[in-house]
Design a protein that fits this description.
The complex is a heterodimer.
Chain A lengths: L39 H12 L8 H12 L4 H11 L3 H8 L13 E6 L2 H5 L2 H13 L9 E2 L8 E6 L11 E3 L2 E3 L4 H12 L15 H8 L6 H4 L7 H13 L20
Parallel strand pairs in A: 1-3
Antiparallel strand pairs in A: 1-4, 2-3, 4-5
Chain B lengths: L21 H6 L4 H8 L2 H11 L11 H6 L14 E6 L9 H7 L1 H15 L3 E6 L4 H16 L15 E6 L9 H8 L13 H4 L6 E5 H19 L9 E8 L5 E6 L4 H7 L9 E5 L8 E2 L9 H6 L8 E6 L4 H15 L5 H18 L5 H14 L6 H23 L11 H10 L1
Helix pairs in contact in B: 2-6, 2-10, 3-6, 3-10, 5-7, 6-7, 6-10, 13-14, 13-16, 14-15, 14-16, 15-16
């Protein structure tokens, strides 16, 4: 196709000038991570995760949890580490790391406090709890979602977040600290809870194992349990969990009795 | 009230001391069904579950036995690929709180169910995808899996019957969309949790493109009881099309919230009676039969039988039987706005109607709740909802519009009351006089 302006710039009617040719000079390759942040144990654990699945890429989600347990967040080094282990591009790992809420992009506190502000918890006081905790931790200017009180990683530091439904609606309003449940909270109890955490104490959750810190919780989520037999003990079911079963017991309801030995159907004929 | 208002089949084991341990589970006849199952032909188990009429407890209510029978068997074609069982334990639907207490209190029923199901569908690998935030469930289920390995219920040549099975407990990372089965499979493959186009369905092309059954926790935890009790026993509870017991999770403005396991078809009136009625006697305003994605119902629907058919006939869905109960003090537009915040945050972004629609619906709702809406906002929202429902890639979009359309259907006036410009109301004469007197 020929131009009707005969080689003139259509805007200025001046002779068109070819743009100056740009040559692409490849930048030096990204330097390898300076200090080795992932020690031999972490590398072994990454390998162990990969061996659990029929295809190694399935280990990516737990591996990102593992990275967080080492670093306290998913850093660029952490992304590169996962990519190297799994033979993926860093972009592929980044795409996954940025998709999920539990992967944090910045260093956070010793503890992660998640306040449920979904409709049911909010209606029963969750919004007030979140607001008061943000104010309390902010010392004057309230903290915002995913901000940290105290130096990230230091003892007693807390990252606050509002969470979506934490699946404990019968125990609303709920808070999780490092993913352990603190059920049936009030503005007062939540205030006492964060005060205690700031003082370096570790109050016991309503349901769950004794409180540790967020990075230890992340290691467990990655699938590495130190002494599972004892952490699995933890605190057992809440009163609400058992309310129906207890009512059935006291009322003498146990559902229809099972037969002594139920016969299985015959092997169906192949069509 | 009927003789047996509650049928604690699953929850009955929860009151035992250390109910989550293998000893306690075996004292309650645990792992007996496994022995029966491994003696049987796998097809007998599929037929048994078909006969029982068990329907998926994760929300959709698909017949479980039929799902299992879709798995291609035999040494050729898709049947020749490895088969997988994946448990959807990514509980996150607002209001839903049944699988987490189940996994905490009774993880062995899930593990035994997984072994029986895997044997039935001829799978040698099973993954239990647990929501990452459910840390104590991850511990309890992992502990149960370890105990099952130690007892010879998992691993190679289970109970000397020549069947091999490995179970991996896999934690998610905080994405509601991963409760959608194909998004869950993508997530389990180490990708962003975004839904896949169906067909092909997971039954032929699931995990690693191989035949896969994806079932909910409560569904699979029910399987050992069906094997021990038989299909006739199971059908003594519930209705013809929705048989069996179901864990109803009551939350909100109710005197005794919690888990109530009752036959399918129990009504909210009966459940409220069991739970001591409305909290402080404040009347019921609206409720969800099964999570926020199921359209709202009102006090008119107290006698709707809560089974798959009954909830659908009332214009809602049974969902997960997460019964959220709200009294007269709660504003419907506010509640709908809060739910829409959730869907906007959790929309995975793959398809335009849901990604954009949820975003703009939230803008409109926030404006309305702030008192700056207009009457036409209601029509705008309904129009946007119409463009999301049935046009989104997966059910998240359909769920997102449920609270809005049902909220407007039953409580339109409450939305109108929030509008900035209130329609002019004829003034009584004496008011005019008063205005005149002031001038």
């Amino acid at each position: 196709m020929t131009s009707s302006t005969g080689g003139l710039n259509p805007e200025t009617y001046e002779p068109a000038v070819a743009p100056v040719e740009q040559t692409y000079t490849p930048e030096a390759r990204e330097p390898l991570p300076g200090p080795v942040v992932f020690d031999e144990l972490t590398r072994q654990r990454a390998k162990e995760l990969m061996s659990r699945y029929p295809q190694s890429r399935s280990a990516l989600l737990p591996m990102l949890h593992l990275v967080q347990s080492v670093q306290g967040y998913v850093s660029q080094d952490g992304i590169r580490f996962c990519a190297e282990q799994l033979g993926l591009a860093t972009a592929e790992v980044s795409a996954v790391a940025t998709f999920y809420t539990m992967y944090k992009r910045r260093p956070g506190g010793e503890h992660l406090v998640s306040v449920c502000t979904n409709t049911l918890c909010a209606a029963l006081g969750g919004d007030d709890i979140y607001k008061s905790v943000c104010e309390k931790l902010g010392n004057g200017s309230p903290l915002k979602h995913e901000q940290t009180a105290g130096e990230p990683g230091s003892p007693g530091s807390i990252t606050i977040e509002h969470a979506e439904c934490l699946a404990a609606c019968d125990l609303a309003p709920v808070i999780q600290v490092n993913y352990e449940y603190f059920d049936k909270q009030t503005v007062e109890s939540a205030g006492e809870l964060v005060d205690a955490l700031r003082r370096g104490e570790k109050p016991n959750p309503t349901r769950g194992a004794p409180l540790t810190d967020w990075r230890t919780a992340e290691l467990e989520i990655a699938g590495f349990h130190d002494d599972l037999a004892s952490t699995a003990e933890g605190v057992s079911a809440a009163e609400e969990t058992l309310v129906g079963a207890r009512l059935a017991e006291t009322s003498g309801w146990h559902g229809p009795a099972k037969p002594e030995r139920a016969a299985l159907p015959d092997v169906p004929e192949k069509k | 009230m009927t003789q047996q208002a509650l049928t604690p089949v699953l929850t009955g084991r929860w009151t035992a001391a250390r109910s989550w341990s293998r000893e306690a589970y075996e004292q309650a006849d645990g792992y007996k069904a496994l022995r029966t199952a491994l003696e049987a032909h796998p097809d007998q188990l599929i037929q048994l579950v078909k006969d029982s009429g068990l329907r998926g407890r994760g929300g959709a209510g698909f017949p479980t036995g039929m799902k299992w029978s879709f798995i291609p068997q035999g040494g050729t074609g898709a049947g020749a690929k490895p088969h997988y069982l994946v448990i959807n334990a990514d509980e996150g639907e607002p209001g839903t709180c049944k699988d987490i207490p189940l996994m905490m209190a009774d993880p062995h029923s899930l593990v035994e169910g997984c072994i029986i199901t895997s044997y039935a569908i001829r799978a040698n690998f099973c993954a239990i995808y647990i929501r990452g935030e459910a840390l104590h469930c991850i511990r309890r289920v992992q502990n149960a899996v370890n105990e099952a390995y130690a007892a010879g219920y998992l691993g190679k040549d289970i109970l000397g019957k020549g069947f091999d099975l490995d179970i991996v407990v896999h934690a998610g990372a905080g994405a509601y969309i991963c409760g959608e089965e194909t998004a869950l499979l993508d997530s389990l493959e180490g990708r962003r949790g975004q839904p896949r186009l169906k067909p092909p369905f997971p039954a032929t092309s699931g995990l690693y493109s191989a035949p896969t059954v994806v079932n909910n926790v409560e569904t699979i935890a029910t399987v050992p009881d069906i094997v021990r009790g038989g299909s006739d026993w199971f059908r003594e509870m519930g209705s013809e099309k929705s048989p069996g017991p179901k864990i109803y999770s009551l939350s909100g403005h109710v005197t005794n919230p919690g888990q109530y396991e009752a036959p399918l078809g129990t009504t909210l009136r009966q459940l409220l009676e069991l739970a001591g009625g409305m909290k402080d006697g404040i009347p019921l305003k609206f409720w969800t039969p099964g999570g926020s994605s199921t359209p709202l119902l009102t006090a008119e629907h107290l006698d709707v039988p809560l089974d798959f058919e009954g909830a659908a006939a009332a214009g809602s869905m049974l969902g997960t039987t997460a019964v959220m109960i709200f009294n007269e003090t709660v504003s419907v537009p506010w509640a709908v706005m809060k739910w829409t915040e959730f869907y906007k945050h959790e929309s995975c972004g793959k398809c335009t109607p849901c990604r954009e629609g949820c975003y703009w619906l939230l803008q409109v709702l926030q404006r309305m709740v702030a008192g700056q809406g207009t009457e036409s906002d209601i029509d705008t929202m309904l129009d946007v909802c119409d463009n999301i429902l049935g046009r989104s890639f997966c059910a998240l979009g359909d769920g997102a519009v449920s609270p809005i359309t049902s909220g407007i259907k039953y409580f339109r006036q409450e939305f109108l009351d929030l509008c900035a410009d209130q329609p002019k109301v004829a003034r009584p004469e004496q008011l005019d006089d008063l205005v005149g007197a002031r001038a």
